[in-house]
Backbone:
């Protein structure tokens, strides 16, 4: 398939590590620069537990008018891996639908901000991982990770997995980054930068209700 003109694919070291917040902050940074931004998430699961599902926060941050289905073609109630949530609903996630929906979203805007599901090796279908989708979309990765204990290993594993598929990684973003980082957190940042050979950015605690108060993630202002 033809690559999408400009954008990023936000993955993370796992589930609940800040992918949506990082993707939303990138989308907001671009929208504040008056760029038109589309967002995409291959599948949303756990709808039954969420006050504001990922596709809604992404849409709000981007100032997008995309429909739910245009952002996230597969949406399921149970908090499960997408391939299992689809199976429980008697469905199968079709990689071609994902590629087409992402391409259409990218065509409708100047920049496309995608959020993965869970970590980079999560199956979307039994034979199609989040990493395969990132490769097919041809977008550079951004890796969301926690600042604290355990993050060096999780982040370096993710970078190694990206590298094994020849995926470019633009940056790691540690989130939420405290106002006064501990010695461990500061050291984690430096160690990931040195061992991962990748820029490591930080995102402070954001008031998710008010995107207009968010500080820009400068590195993404000119995507
Ligand atoms: N910079 C931040 N500001 C405010 N909240 C944050 C920040 N970073 C992470 N969080 C909080 O951490 C939790 C997980 O973040 P988020 O929903 O972005 O993770 P995720 O990786 O997208 O999860 P999922 O795997 O479910 O998609 C949320 O409660 C979110 O509000
Ligand atoms: Mg998310």
Residues:
């Amino acid at each position: 398939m033809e690559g999408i003109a400009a954008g990023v694919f936000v993955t993370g070291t796992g589930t609940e590590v800040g992918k949506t917040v990082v993707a939303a902050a990138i989308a907001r940074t671009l929208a504040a620069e008056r760029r038109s931004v589309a967002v995409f998430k291959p599948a949303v699961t756990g709808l039954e537990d969420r006050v504001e599902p990922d596709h809604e926060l992404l849409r709000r941050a981007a100032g997008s008018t995309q429909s739910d289905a245009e952002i996230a073609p597969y949406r399921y109630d149970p908090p499960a891996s997408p391939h299992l949530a689809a199976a429980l609903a008697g469905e199968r996630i079709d990689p071609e639908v994902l590629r087409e929906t992402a391409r259409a979203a990218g065509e409708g805007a100047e920049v496309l901000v995608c959020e993965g599901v869970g970590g980079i090796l999560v199956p979307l279908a039994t034979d199609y991982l989040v990493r395969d989708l990132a490769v097919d979309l041809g977008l550079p990765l951004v890796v969301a990770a926690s600042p604290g204990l355990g993050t060096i290993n999780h982040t370096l594993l993710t970078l190694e997995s990206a590298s094994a598929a020849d995926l470019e990684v633009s940056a790691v973003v540690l989130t939420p980054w405290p106002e006064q980082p501990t010695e461990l957190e500061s050291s984690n940042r430096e160690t990931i930068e040195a061992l991962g050979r990748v820029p490591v950015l930080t995102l402070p605690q954001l008031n998710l209700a008010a995107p207009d108060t968010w500080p820009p993630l400068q590195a993404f202002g000119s995507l």
About this structure: Strands lie at 7-12, 37-40, 43-44, 74-75, 111-115, 123-125, 128-129, 141-145, 169-177, 200-204.
